[in-house]
Amino acid sequence: MEKADYQLLLEHGTDIHWMLDCVTGQLLYVSPVAARRFGWSPEQVLERAQAIAAPLLHDLPERLARFRQGDGTRHTVLREAELEGIAVEIESTLVDERRLVGVARDISARRAFEHQQKQFASMLSHEFRSPLATIDGAIQRLVMTDKGADEGTTKRYHKIQAAVDRLLGMVDEYLSPERLAAIGRRQRENGIEPAALLEAAAAHARVRRPGIVVHGGDAPAWVRADPEGMRMCLDVLLDNAIKYTPPGSPIELWAGKADGGGIEFTVADRGPPIPEGEIGRLFDKGYRGIAAVGIAGSGIGLYMAKAVIEVHGGTLSVQNLPESGKKFRIWLPVAV
Predict the structure, then answer these.
(1) What is the pLDDT of residues 124-148, one digit of tens each?
(2) pTM for this model (two decimals)
(3) Nearest CA among 53, 58, 59, 55 for reference residue 75
(4) DSSP state letters, 85-146
(5) CA 162 – CA 168 distance, rounded (Å)
């Protein structure tokens, strides 16, 4: 790429690039994007940006000291701030002892999305907690009052109680607004082993459908993703496959490399296809198709799964198979 091409990127991109002199603390360059974004005149850019850059200077002496000692932990730093009322993420990198360069990215859309995720999590927590609390109270009363229950019935009571406790624990741990909004953020260190994830999900579902098959593929050994979120998504897809296919009908799970530098997980069954008019609405909140008549459900599982996958930067889709059945596909980018 020619020098002129780089200049075009700096002048016409959406991010604000800048360079600062570590000795004087003065900005040497701010890309023209800043003037367009904040309505500054070209003459105002360096002066206005200098005031905004002041927080970067507070820890600069410490970063320089570490840099000289060979400590790379503060070589690149990310922080969030408000610039002229706009939420931005500022990334700064020490090139050497004289130059600090970086970029400021508008994260208003991300903040808005995180707010939506928190609202969604609050709603979802309420939707789950209310019926679970009812079941919890009822089963506790049965345990205390049904003194004539035989051993098998008592074991079933305790099994129901344990399941309710587990679900309430998941609501507290996983469906809190802060927890759901954090899924997929790149600073999280959680990851999954695709093969192990599929096996665990299949083992859990085989209690209801023994014939679930997991196929090995060329998936990477490890992918950065939220383990609980991915497990929940697969549980939702398997639950739907079991509900809407005849007993004994095969269900298959796959994981492998996908186009676009990603990984895909698929859940395929050989049950009835989805009516074409319903495919576009299947992931809508509360939507239940004609096949759901007489089958227990709230219409929120697929909506929840899609929301979790999208927070990871991925997609969740469905298609009918040519021969019979349908295939749900999760695509995730492979973060490094």
Answers:
(1) 666 677 777 788 788 888 877 877 7
(2) 0.51
(3) 59
(4) TEEEEEEEEE-SSSEEEEEEEE-HHHHHHHHHHHHHHHHHHHHHHHHHHHHHHHHHHHHHH-
(5) 10
